[in-house]
Design goal:
The chain is of the alpha/beta class. Helices cover 26% and strands 22% of the residues. The protein has 14 helices and 24 strands.
């Protein structure tokens, strides 16, 4: 018996388990379906690509979407972290908060306490920025934020090219303004990944009031009437029932939190009955409003850029030196996030704030690194910051071990395609600036053939996929299709909250990991205040 059961040991779950057990009178059990985060591939930053973390293996659920009409019937890829740290153990470690307007929008949708002025203190509480404290940053928090140790020359050349194309330089995407080009700050410490687990769990695993169980697959949430009272969980093949005296905190992410709610009888009634799940609470918004940053890549073959990651005879000495430098000094090429620099820019001059983001990746990254490529080159990921398309998350089966039916409905709203076509042309212009063009890079043939709007649209539909940021499937708000209230309590039930990216009313304008950590910091404060 515990005070709190936390389902999911990812970014949000790690924060909750750590913050709640700061009170020695509170007991917490953290349940994670995946393994511990001890793999060297997780700790080494370049493991995201060089170690295959994006491809699958034991630390990645490696989900797929249902066939997407907007992607010519292709099934999209949906990698999600599996293990302590969740997706913060396999992501690109970029520290991006989004725009203040994102959070003011959340508050304006009927969520008091979630405006920028209210959430900024929780970003600061989480952060230890090695640049030091300022109006926008803090020191002393668990999450280490720093400048890259060994940024590549190619990443800096992209920034120069973007400036040559007319973008301002930006030394801090989380500072006064987001617009511009620069080098991303990263969640690393001493040359290693600083995941949420590394930041919040690892230093506190010895607390007697914290129990962490890995390899624990939660089958369903158990209710006493309309109050969540515990979970059924399978550990080492044995089905157990654990009791929560105060609350069950669901932190399984935008794809698995709604799935587990539905498996527990909470969700759209007709859909649950189709799968033979006994209905406890008809909550039609569960699994609605799923959305994600859709991303299209521009891939350039650049044999003269010898500082990019590659599979080639020329790249072998660099790889061996990188392994030696990281193994002996935690320095060198393998401290790279691969996506080192980027930009936020406006698709049209009259836009109030940037509506497009670019990640410059120092390798030819095709199909999420699942397709082996040879030779030096680089890749730019372009995504609309606030996509209009909305999809759904549904059960594919009543089997708790089955993957859910994921439908982001990419390009369901034509505004997303129109925006990407505009951004595609602007990005191509950046890559043609002297800083990069002097090295003789060549677009891959399919990209080079995309010149007219129709050809660019065809290329986008053939080559775009997730930027790894699914959100919104348990949306926060006061409306009939909202799932949680502004304190993240599931509507119509007691003792149950959802704390992860699924509660976002609208996706933030940037990478989602730092915002999820902020959400969990704020949730922990609310939970402790209620207790």
């Amino acid at each position: 018996m515990f005070d709190y059961l936390v389902i999911g040991g990812g970014s949000a779950g790690s924060v909750l388990a750590s913050r709640l057990t700061e009170d020695p009178a509170i007991s917490v059990c953290l349940l994670e379906a995946g393994p511990a985060d001890s793999s060297v591939l997780i700790q080494c930053p370049a493991g995201i690509v060089a170690g295959g973390l994006l491809k699958g293996w034991q630390h990645n659920w490696a989900f797929k979407t249902v066939p997407q009409a907007g992607l010519k019937g292709r099934r999209g890829y949906q990698p999600r972290g599996r293990g302590l740290g969740g997706s913060s153990s396999i992501n690109a470690m970029l520290y991006v908060r989004g725009q203040p307007q994102d959070y003011d929008f959340w508050a304006a949708q009927g969520n008091p306490g979630w405006g920028w002025a209210e959430v900024l203190p929780y970003f600061l509480k989480a952060e230890h920025n090695e640049r030091g404290a300022s109006a926008h940053h803090a020191t002393g928090g668990p999450l280490n934020v720093m400048d890259p140790l060994c940024p590549s020359e190619s990443a800096a050349l992209f920034v120069q090219a973007a400036i040559q194309a007319g973008l301002p330089a930006n030394l801090d995407f989380n500072g006064e303004r987001q617009e511009g080009a620069g080098i991303y700050q990263v969640t690393q410490r001493d040359g290693e990944r600083c995941s949420a687990a590394k930041a919040y769990l690892t230093p506190n695993r010895g607390r007697p009031n914290l129990t962490v169980i890995t390899g624990a697959t939660v089958q369903r949430i158990v209710f006493d009437g309309r109050r969540a009272s515990g979970v059924e969980v399978r550990v080492d093949g044995q089905l157990q029932r654990l009791v929560a005296q105060r609350e069950v905190l669901l932190c399984a992410g935008a794809l698995q939190s709604p799935q587990l709610l539905m498996l527990s009888g909470v969700g759209p009634g007709a859909h649950l009955q189709q799968h033979g799940v006994a209905l406890l609470h008809d909550l039609p918004g569960v699994g609605e409003h799923l959305h994600d940053h859709i991303s299209v890549t521009q891939v350039v073959d650049a044999p003269r850029r010898r500082d990019t990651f590659t599979v080639s005879p020329q790249g072998l000495p660099m790889a061996l030196k990188g392994v030696y430098d990281w193994a002996t000094k935690r320095r060198g090429k393998l401290t790279s996030t691969i996506a080192e620099s980027g930009a936020f820019f406006k698709s049209r001059p009259d836009e109030a704030v940037p509506d497009l983001q670019v990640h410059f990746v120092i390798t030819k990254l095709i199909d999420h690194a699942r397709q082996l490529t040879f030779g030096h080159g680089y890749t730019c990921h372009l995504c609309p910051l606030r996509p209009a398309s909305r999809g759904t998350l549904r059960l594919a089966s009543a089997d708790p071990t089955a993957a859910p039916a994921i439908d982001p409905n990419f390009f369901g709203d034509p505004a997303d395609m129109a925006l990407l076509i505009r951004g595609f042309r602007q990005l191509r212009r950046i890559l043609q600036q002297p800083a990069l063009a002097t090295f003789g890079g060549r677009e891959l043939p399919a990209l080079a053939a995309a010149q007219s709007d129709a050809q660019i649209e065809d290329y986008i539909r053939s080559n775009s996929d997730t930027e790894y940021h699914p959100v919104g499937s348990c949306r926060m708000g006061p409306g009939p299709l909202d799932v949680v209230d502004h304190q993240l309590r599931v509507r119509g039930l007691q003792g149950l909250r959802v704390v992860d990216a699924s509660v976002m009313p609208r996706i933030v304008s940037g990478n989602t990991n730092a915002p999820v950590i902020m959400i969990a910091e704020k949730a922990a404060a609310m939970i402790r205040q209620d207790a």
